[in-house]
């Protein structure tokens, strides 16, 4: 059996272990469901505010914020991602959040990896203001109001993707129908500005702009520096096969987890397998 098949079998065992731990969740209407989990939440005409671990989170009612919160903290979109990182004993010291929205994914990951530095990029001005407010009590955070692209340029924001709400703002070269213009930055620029030798975890949810990040080998050199990737691939842009192919070519092992494709460097899985073998234990 080749090494890659061994790695896949090893991760399959881990996923089976995680599935046995998952607790079912019964659906209710949005607000009552939310209050069932956060009875101390404070509500006014336009926002809902709650406290997690001593930090205030503000959610805008007239937006997609509540749905994002439910996705992350109630339905636990990234729970398998976190568990796989822990099971494979991957050290997380640097996290890049591309498409940070109002900071909820960063907060969730920060609660699980409290010693990490978080670098967040979000292009929309209103979302960015909420991002700043929600992360204001955290240290070791770097925030950019930028769109992520393959080159440095000006680009346009629009609301014509999916439901058009704040979690679906997309970017385009086309000014027609846009509502704002914003500067872009590349992942290489983030690496340079923050003096990064490696990226432990990068979360990518950029509403189709992942097509720009993976459009050619010149754009994906950053993959050699990454241990774990969590990416939502938007099928409307027909780039899933290309992205998967590039990740495999860079020796990532791929796992579908809810809406997220998790890619773990094979070297990290190999280290975990060696640890299990050396300690003669199984999951």
Automatic annotation (TrEMBL):
Q: Name one GO molecular function term.
A: methyltransferase activity
Picking any one GO biological process from the record gives: methylation
Q: Does the keyword Nucleotide-binding apply?
A: no
User: SUPFAM superfamilies recorded for this chain?
Assistant: S-adenosyl-L-methionine-dependent methyltransferases (SSF53335)
What are the record keywords, sorted?
Methyltransferase, Transferase
| Gene3D superfamilies named among the record's database cross-references | Vaccinia Virus protein VP39
* Any single Pfam family the record assigns to this protein: Methyltransf_21
Domain of life according to the entry: Bacteria
The chain positions of domain Methyltransferase FkbM read 97-235
**NCBIfam families with a match to the protein in the record:** fkbM_fam (TIGR01444)
The name under which this protein is listed is FkbM family methyltransferase
Q: Which organism is it from?
A: Spirosoma liriopis
Cite the source lineage: Bacteria, Pseudomonadati, Bacteroidota, Cytophagia, Cytophagales
């Amino acid at each position: 059996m080749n090494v890659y098949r061994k790695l896949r079998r090893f991760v399959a065992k881990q996923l089976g272990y995680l599935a046995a731990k998952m607790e079912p969740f019964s659906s209710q209407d949005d607000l009552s469901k939310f209050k069932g989990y956060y009875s101390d939440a404070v509500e006014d005409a336009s926002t809902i505010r709650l406290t997690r671990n001593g930090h205030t989170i503000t959610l805008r009612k007239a937006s997609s914020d509540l749905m994002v919160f439910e996705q992350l903290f109630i339905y636990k979109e990234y729970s398998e991602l976190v568990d796989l990182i822990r099971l494979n004993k991957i050290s997380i010291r640097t996290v890049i959040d591309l498409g940070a929205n109002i900071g909820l994914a960063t907060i969730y990951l920060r609660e699980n990896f409290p010693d990490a530095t978080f670098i967040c990029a979000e292009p929309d001005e209103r979302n960015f203001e909420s991002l700043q407010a929600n992360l204001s009590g955290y240290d070791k955070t770097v925030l950019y109001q930028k769109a992520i692209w393959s080159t440095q340029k000006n680009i346009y924001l629009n609301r014509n993707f999916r439901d058009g709400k704040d979690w679906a703002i997309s970017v385009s070269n086309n000014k027609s129908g846009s509502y704002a213009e914003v500067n872009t930055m590349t992942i290489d620029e983030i690496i340079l500005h923050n003096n990064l030798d490696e990226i432990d975890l990068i979360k990518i949810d950029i509403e189709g702009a992942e097509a720009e990040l993976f459009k050619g080998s010149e754009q994906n050199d950053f993959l050699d520096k990454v241990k774990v990737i969590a990416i939502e691939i938007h099928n409307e842009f027909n780039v899933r096969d290309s992205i998967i192919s590039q990740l495999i070519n860079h020796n990532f092992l791929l796992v579908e987890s809810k809406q997220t494709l998790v890619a773990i460097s094979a070297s990290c899985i190999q280290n975990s397998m060696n640890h299990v073998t050396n300690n003669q234990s199984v999951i």
